[in-house]
Amino acid sequence: MIGADYQRNWTQYFDFVGDSGARETLLCALDSHGPIDSARPPLALDVACGEGRDTRELLRRGWRVVAFDASEDGLTRLRASIDSAWAERLTLHRLSMEEAATSRLLPARVDVVNASFALPFCSPESFPALWSRLCGMLSPGGRFAGQIFGDRDEWAPVRPASHYTREAMLGLFEGFVMERCDEVEKDGSDAMGAVKHHHLFHVVARKG
Ligand SMILES: C[S@@+](CC[C@H](N)C(=O)[O-])C[C@H]1O[C@@H](n2cnc3c(N)ncnc32)[C@H](O)[C@@H]1O
């Protein structure tokens, strides 16, 4: 369940998901990016990285990563889970998405913006500024990977402005080439075992 404040108990969530492996959308974006030059590793931003399933994959593949989350517990788990040889390529910030919209802690340019099951948890008031910032920092040819929640999702009545029709979702990606846009609508278990009606878009998009 989602709370009236559109938040969950993230510690319980991290316990449930454990290290479930990187998200398909990130894997797709990284495969499309292709091999990296390890002498000049590309840079990814992991938005609301949680306990770090995607950050770990980026580091494992040799990327540099700036990752942030509002949850200290998530960041602590992430720090504890990485290979020490990867640490110099990782910068972690405890930061909310609302703060990230204007924070100087974020890099000016990145090659990937990864936001797995993250953006709906940004307050609708701050989302336009956050989205504009994320799009602005992405290099031409760089990729966005992540999820946008749909308007028929069971959680939509809790905060309708965090849920998008297909048309509104596509509007977010003006100036991008959609490389993957999988719309899923189904009844199924959520990350913590409860059954819910899901409606979401899995997106990988390349900035033009
Ligand atoms: C569904 S989890 C996704 C975590 C991770 N990206 C993944 O794919 O497993 C949502 C994450 O958003 C974080 N979060 C929720 N509200 C946030 C906010 N306003 N700013 C930053 N992080 C937030 C939570 O702490 C949690 O780690």
Structure commentary:
With 208 residues, the protein is an alpha/beta fold. It has one domain: Rossmann fold (3-Layer(aba) Sandwich). The chain is 28% helix and 29% strand. The chain has 7 helices and 7 strands. The chain has a 7-stranded mixed beta sheet. β4, α6 and β5 form a beta-alpha-beta unit.
Question: What distinguishing features does this structure have?
Answer:
seven-stranded mixed beta sheet; binds S-adenosylmethionine; globular; 7 strands; 7 helices; alpha/beta; Rossmann fold; 28% helix
Give the SSE map:
Blueprint: H1 10-17, H2 24-33, E1 43-47, H3 53-60, E2 64-69, H4 72-81, E3 90-94, H5 97-100, E4 110-115, H6 127-137, E5 138-149, H7 166-172, E6 176-189, E7 195-207
Parallel strand pairs: 1-2, 1-4, 2-3, 4-5
Antiparallel strand pairs: 5-7, 6-7
Number of helices: 7
- Which ions, cofactors or small ligands are bound in this entry? S-adenosylmethionine
Structural class based on helices, strands and sheet pairing: alpha/beta
Radius of gyration: 16 Å
Give the number of domains: 1
Determine the mean pLDDT: 97
Largest sheet at a glance? 7 strands, mixed
CATH topology: Rossmann fold
Determine and state the CATH class: Alpha Beta
Uncertain segments are none
